[in-house]
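User: Can you help me understand a structure? I only have the sequence.
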Amino acid sequence: MKKHLFFALIVSLFISSCSSDNGWKSEDYGLIPFLKDNNFLVYVDIKTGEEKGNFTYAGLFREGVALVNDTNGYFYYVDKDVAPVNEERYIAATFFNNGLAWSVKKGAPVVAIEKSGDVAFEFKEAETAYAFNDGAAVFTDENEKFGAVNKKGKIIVEPVWNNAFPMFVNGLLIVQNEEGLYGLINKDGEVLVECQFDCMGIDRSGQNFFMSNYVQALKEDRIPFKKDRSWGITNSKGEYVINPQFDEIVLDGDNYLFLKGKLWGWCDKDGHYIINPQFKSALPFGENEYTVAINDNYEYGYIDKEGKWVINPQFEKALPFNSCGLAVASDKSSDYGLIDKEGKWVVNPQFRYIYDYNLDNKFISIDKSSSNLGIIDKEGKWIVNPDFELFSPTFLDNEYGLEEYNSVKSDYVDVDKLISSIEEGILGLKTSTAGNLITTYSIEEKNFPKYKGNVKIYDKYTVLLSTDIRATDINAWNSESNGWYRYNYTFAPETAVNTYSASFYLNNRAADHIDQVFNIIAEKYNFDIETGTITVPDYEEVKISKGRRSITFYIKTK
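Assistant: Let's start by predicting it. Here is the structure, written out as tokens:
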């Protein structure tokens, strides 16, 4: 944390204020989690400096409560007195939003909970569930497909999407199909914009633009998209608002900050240039009259909305002006202070770093001598002494709008379902021919080896179970020598098939149940420990073996 991703940070700090729909972003900064003695997190009151609590994880407050993790590794929720809001403890949980949070207990499925700890509904269908927003939550099922559920536990978007952004905004969700292309759906699962774009909203590496290019974009129905390597703007009908022509584009109020080649400029809502691309880097204006820009010498200064320098580039680093009319900047010595809108130092450069999170004229700062963090006022005086090693990473995540604990994973394993899936895999294998395998399993002749061997006829992966079924000891090709040690091969579809291997791999947490699954199958089908066989009706012989996390059947049909 002593090394700072500066530009990504200042972008996230600035654009988070550009939308009235905050998504997951909390603006409750009254209590901030700081690391104390390189050991545990405490909440610090930014007005009084009072320290509260002792946690291994401490989140920001949302809807009056915060998610914390105790020294035993359990998650729970606290109020602003940092007292537990109920007696429930979880192995995983999300923050509250829309009045609900997701939680998971040991060996249990995902459940939606209320602040009282009462269960709103159980959601066994979910493998992963993301925090609620806009009255719905995105989830993935056992096949790692994305869908959505409402606050009553009803699936409103079937899990059919290869990928999706983690939240609904304005009733809209960006999704990705199996071909890797992006489109837009609504809460009824209806496709509003067919999947046709290489990227939409932001790409996954651009999380610092999440608040503007996803939350604000969906709310205002002007959505960045990438097609054929260029970015443009579309609406929720799939109509181009701005044709793809930029190397990057960011919503900035009613206008756009864009990258063309290696230079940044601005265009209006129709794509017409307002400020020609001329800056090495720049930040959105948002609601400010000035913004930060960088010249050819990589010096930071401030420009107006005509692109003219109002504070000449002279700083090593600089942040946007905040609501109190001050901005963080550093001089050539790399020390940080505060400047006014004339570029004059109000607080001389004397700190190793200053963070501006709009804390009511307060700034988290790093003391130059101790490298510890505290809080200063707008005159540079310590109001919370620099006694802390760093603040919780969740604080920076919040500025991106993508809080770290925004999802939970199920800890539930339905053993009966695993066994049913295994039985379904082996009981469907019958005496057949190579030609019938091609028809039944949609495989091709070329998949059959030109010698006696095995051919994969079926495989499937889920989060908890992988299936691999092969026909074994097959020689489905007739060969005829054509001289010079070469052969002509002719496929023989009538080749008989009556031996198979079926391997089932228990993945992730399901692997802990390997003995239980094996023992149930062994008992049900009369396992003979001496021969290693089980008795399956209508099969001549079935051998079974257990690995560390797998069960394999060797089957000979009648």
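Now, to help you interpret it: Residues 456 and 470 are 4 Å apart (CA to CA). Residues 415-427 form the longest helix (13 residues). Let me know which part you'd like to focus on.
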